[in-house]
Amino acid sequence: MSTVAEVLAWQPALLEQIGDGMVGARRQLVGLEDELAAGRPPSDWEGDDATAARRTHRLLTVRLHDLVAEVSALARSIGVAAAGVEAARRSVTHAVSQAEGAGFFVDPASGAVLDPAVAPPDPALADDRARLREELAARIEEGMRAAHHSDAALARVLGLVASSLLDGGNDSLADAAARGRSAGRRDSLPMPSTGDPGRVHGWWKGLSPGERRRFLRDFPELIGNADGIPMARRDEANRRFLPLALDRLRDQLRRSESMNDFERIVVQMPSPKVLRTKIADLEAIRDAVRQPGTALLSLGIRGKRFVTADIAVGNVHRADTVTHSVHGVGTRPATRVDDKMRAARDLLAQKQQISEQAGEERTHAVIMSMGYEAPQLDLTDLTDEERQFFRDTVAKDAAPGMADFLTSIDTTRRSDPHLTLDGHSYGSVVSGEVLKHDTGIDAFVASGAPGVGVDDVTELKVPRGNVHNIEAKGDHIADLGYFGRDLTYLEGVRQLDTTAHPELGLSANEGHTSYHDRDTTSLYNIAAVGADHPDLAIDDTRGPDLADRGREGVRRVVETTRGAVAEARDFVDDRIADGLRLLDHVRR
Amino acid sequence: MGGGIQADPGAIVRSGQAMLAASDTADRVEVATHLSLLSMALPGSLSATAVDRLQQEWCDTVDRWAEAVRRHGVALGAGGVDYTCVETDVRRALGGRSPSPPTPGPLQKRGVLE
Questions:
Q1: Of A369, A373, A45, A43, the residue nearest B4 (C-alpha)
Q2: What tens digit of pLDDT does each residue of A406-432 get?
Q3: Contacts of B31 in chain A (CB under 8 A)
Q4: Which letter, b or e, does each residue of A456-479 get, where b requires 16 or more Cβ atoms within 10 Å of its Cβ?
Q5: Rounded CA gap, A180 and A178, in Å?
Q6: Between chain A and chain B, how many beta carbons pairs sit less than 8 Å apart?
Q7: β-strand partners of A562
């Protein structure tokens, strides 16, 4: 097995040159077809010499066929290996130089990534660094896997030729060359089964350009939703997949309509209602991504009820800042994609305006995330324990996938953007669950949040001082503190304003659904944090309102009561235990 | 000479010339030099090990084929050579890689050829 140092010393350009030389040799040998035909002994020549001459000619012809197949197999496999080795070597080189640039040490033999630096005091930053180290180690490992795959495939063909196992056949020399080319092919390295973004990225970078094109063409659903694939390629794959998905669902609908309930259960066919919903979702997404400047970064059609999608405005691959907006209960593509895309564009425009205000030339992007199946306020979800909006089951299920998606934004770029998670309502609950994972998120804004599933802000993996809460007047859902403690009372959470600021042209937000409205203080604040200008965000100086205070008062009473009950229970338990011990002693 | 020439000698000579031309072309085919660079391109690899074996056993195969074709062409051109000898020479030149003739010829039937 080659070491990292050896792979870095490999010369794909020289390999390509060797491959070109072998292609030239193959061409020269295939060109002997005419001479070989002309050299066949005359057909009217008879006798023993003629028979022997024909046999000799036959021997030479058969051997030439095999030779052509062998040279052709070598030419093909060396050419394929050159492309594969170049990609694998580049992948390893990039990961190693990125690791060294970040102050890590890469073992030249094993490729292990070690961190000689002292861990940062902020646990979120320490986690971020550990995540980067793991990601780079995974990328090096995948690059090495690709390098070994190319090497092993070439060594196999070299062995085949050395063992005379290739048959050039009896047809033309061109046919013999085709047989050789076929033997010189190699299977593409399969995608890592773990789905880890760093590993998938290393795998993708280790593929040759031709292999990448084939994966994208043949498996668009897989590539479009694989975290670790560059965003531009995901967009390309998902746009390719979208019409295929529509065809597939329409076909399923036709079949589902012809079945009864029992048959559908047997073949696990979704109901016509679900299929019609998904088709409507896909059509809405198709229309949304027809708008210029959009990118379809994920497209999932295998969900329980709806289609999921992440649609970006702005260039996620290059933008200096990226905001990922997660929406809440009741959102799904067919009914809400238009207004959520409008909100994403407004947020993008506001971020740009803030950069201009700060005198900076920075680029921005926003991702409108319907990347999970948000609970709906309909009978189906209200009666489904796994999907009820007052449970965190959906949020917990969605979190690992969304965390990988966010991680892949950093993983697939040369430099990390300022990455903000913007969660609204139940989207905040999802965001809170996401932030219990390593994601590379730099800032978090929760708006209209009924809690984020934690009682202590340090449970969220966000750098200190970068968690923000926005609560508008009259938003009773944000007062609930249903999923963990009310953010208004969480220490370390910055409270941002929602009142009007006419001097800035900003109007007030009211109720639960206006946080992303154009020209409002809330949108301005979300944009300020997202544009990496928290200094321009406006603090909420009002303090907790009556509802907040009432809710917090009840929480404290409940906690105190719980504590007193627990203490009383412990006291009783202890006394019973004492009594039992005494009884045992008396018995003895 | 075996059974004698019963065809147009000119046609046989032309066959010989075509085979000589094939031999000349094959002489210009270069594989060994290219493959010898492979170890340099992929140091420490499985392929570098595999190509060493290939170079020992295979790389002069084009040269051997060209040499065999040349002998065959010369023999055809000469028109009077005993083909049983030529065939044996060709088999020797191709080494262990020469395939068996598809059908036994009359000389084999008589036990002249191996």
A1: A45
A2: 999 999 988 889 999 999 999 999 999
A3: 21-22, 25, 71, 74
A4: ebeebbbbeebbbbbbbeebebbb
A5: 5
A6: 213
A7: none
Neighboring chain A residues of B12 at a CB cutoff of 8 Å? 41-42, 45
Chain B positions in Cβ-Cβ contact with residue A53 (cut-off 8 Å):
72, 75-76, 83, 86
Q: State the angle between helix axes of A393-411 and A123-162 in degrees (0 to 180), rounded to the nearest 10.
A: 70
pLDDT attached to residue A482: 79
**Average pLDDT, integer, range B13-23:** 92
Provide, as residue numbers in chain A, all residues whose Cβ is less than 8 Å from the Cβ of B75. 53
Q: Going by DSSP bridges, is the β-strand pair A467-470/A443-447 parallel, antiparallel, or unpaired?
A: parallel
Q: For A573-587, how does the pLDDT look when each residue is reduced to its tens digit (9 = 90+)?
A: 777 777 777 777 777
Whether B35 contacts A141, CB under 8 Å: no
Neighbours of B80 (CB within 10 A): 10
pLDDT per residue over A486-502, tens digit each?
Answer: 888 888 999 999 999 99
The ipTM value here is: 0.77
User: Of A522, A303, A63, nearest to B22 (Cα)?
Assistant: A63
The C-alpha angle with vertex A59 and arms to A53 and A65, in degrees rounded to 5, equals: 135
pLDDT digits (tens, 9 = 90+) for A4-58: 999 999 999 999 999 999 999 999 999 999 999 999 998 888 888 888 899 999 9
A81 reaches B (C-beta below 8 A):
yes
- Residue A368 CB: number of other CB atoms within 10 A? 28
Contact, A69 vs A25, CB < 8 A? no
Q: Which residues contact A562 (CB under 8 A, 6 or more apart)?
A: none
Give the residue among B20, B16, B3 at the shortest CA–CA distance from B79: B16
pTM for the structure as a whole: 0.79
Nearest beta carbon to residue A58 from set B46, B69, B102: B102
What is the model's pLDDT at position B111? 35
The pLDDT of A460-477, averaged and rounded, is 90
On whether any CB of chain B is under 8 Å from the CB of A477, the answer is no
Decide: A88 and A147 in contact? Cβ < 8 Å: yes
Tens of pLDDT, residue by residue over A84-127, are 999 999 999 999 999 999 999 999 999 999 999 888 888 888 88
A contact residues 370-389, partner B, Cβ 8 Å cutoff: none
A403 pLDDT above the threshold of 60? yes
Q: Inter-chain contact A39–B33, Cβ cutoff 8 Å?
A: no
- Whether A165 has its CB under 8 Å from any CB of chain B: the answer is no
DSSP string covering A431-477: HHHHTTS-----EEEEES-S--SBSSGGGS-S-TT-EEEE--BT-SS
What's the confidence (pLDDT) of residue B102? 38
Chain A residue with the nearest C-alpha to that of B103: A55
Check: CB of residue A47 under 8 Å from CB of residue B4.
Answer: yes
Of A14, A44, A64, the CB nearest to B7: A44
| pLDDT, averaged across chain A | 90
Q: Which of A329, A486, A472 lies closest to A394, judged by CA?
A: A329
Q: How far is A29 from chain B (nearest CA, A)?
A: 7
Between CA A232 and CA A243 the distance in angstroms is: 18
